[in-house]
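[Discussion] Sanity-checking designs against the backbone

I'm trying to build intuition for which residues belong where. Below is a structure token string of 287 positions. I'd appreciate it if someone posts a full sequence so I can compare it with mine line by line.
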């Protein structure tokens, strides 16, 4: 993508008891039926506790590069802080990724460094929103397109999410430019919800470069504590890495990378994986 397009997951309030004069064009939120998603696509969570040996490290990397195979619906909020030399930037995202129905929202929350941005995507179109997010509540899609706050781009869906799952770890490293998220369904949250780049480029298959320190809990989920040295051959900045990897899905819930001139910290503030009762934000805004 030429620009960073990020989708909106912030209007989770369902307006009730409001008159027409209160809200010009109220939107309707629908709840996602997780049982229907699970009928469309069967996923099995990983319950294996990986040991700090070559087999355990191999299995951890495979879980991370194929994390999309372990969940159908994921929603949450994350914060990313990046420091380069003396410059610091902060970003916050709210997101929802629906794999079986191939729909996504990623909302970049306004900050001192970045303005609000929206990306809403399905298998045929990408909707890019700019403006005050309150307008998403008050106007229809067609009205926002007329106001030039929504642009619509026809896209050609790539099925990379469903390719390469049978490739070995060695094959993926040898052809590291092959990616299962080339379609950008995830937008800017891809590195953590689909951490194949971290697994392949930063850790690689040199098992001596990282350690599975054990298990702990984070956001009421079981996670692996991982620490290591970044593979300089695949990731030119090098440095060190520490992270918390979700045991069931392989997504990264907390991440810290230090290099000579930069530091990146990501921390999930909330996460929901294959839980019922989630508001379908795609259907809320795109009709």
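Best answer:
Here's mine. Compare freely.
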């Amino acid at each position: 993508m030429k620009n960073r397009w990020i989708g909106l997951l912030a209007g989770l309030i369902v307006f009730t008891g409001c008159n027409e004069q209160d809200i010009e064009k109220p939107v309707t939120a629908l709840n996602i039926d997780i049982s229907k998603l699970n009928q469309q696509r069967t996923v099995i969570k990983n319950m294996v506790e990986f040991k700090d040996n070559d087999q355990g490290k191999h299995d951890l990397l495979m879980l991370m590069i194929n994390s999309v195979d372990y969940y159908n619906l994921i929603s949450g909020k994350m914060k990313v802080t990046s420091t380069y030399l003396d410059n610091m930037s902060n970003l916050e995202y709210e997101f929802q990724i629906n794999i079986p129905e191939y729909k996504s929202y990623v909302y970049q929350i306004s900050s001192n460094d970045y303005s609000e941005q929206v990306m809403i995507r399905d298998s045929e179109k990408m909707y890019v929103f700019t403006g005050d997010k309150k307008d998403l509540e008050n106007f229809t899609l067609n009205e926002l397109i007329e106001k030039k706050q929504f642009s619509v781009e026809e896209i050609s869906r790539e099925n990379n999410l469903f390719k390469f799952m049978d490739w070995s770890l060695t094959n993926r490293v040898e052809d590291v430019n092959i990616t299962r998220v080339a379609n950008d369904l995830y937008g800017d949250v891809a590195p953590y919800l689909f951490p194949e780049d971290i697994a392949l480029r930063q850790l690689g298959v040199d098992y001596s470069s990282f350690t599975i320190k054990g298990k702990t809990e984070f956001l009421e989920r079981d996670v692996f504590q991982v620490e290591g040295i970044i593979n300089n051959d695949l990731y030119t900045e090098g440095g060190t890495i520490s992270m918390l990897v979700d045991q069931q899905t392989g997504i990264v819930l907390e991440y810290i990378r230090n290099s000579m001139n930069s530091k990146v910290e990501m921390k999930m503030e909330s996460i929901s994986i294959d839980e019922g009762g989630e508001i379908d934000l795609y259907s809320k805004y795109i009709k």
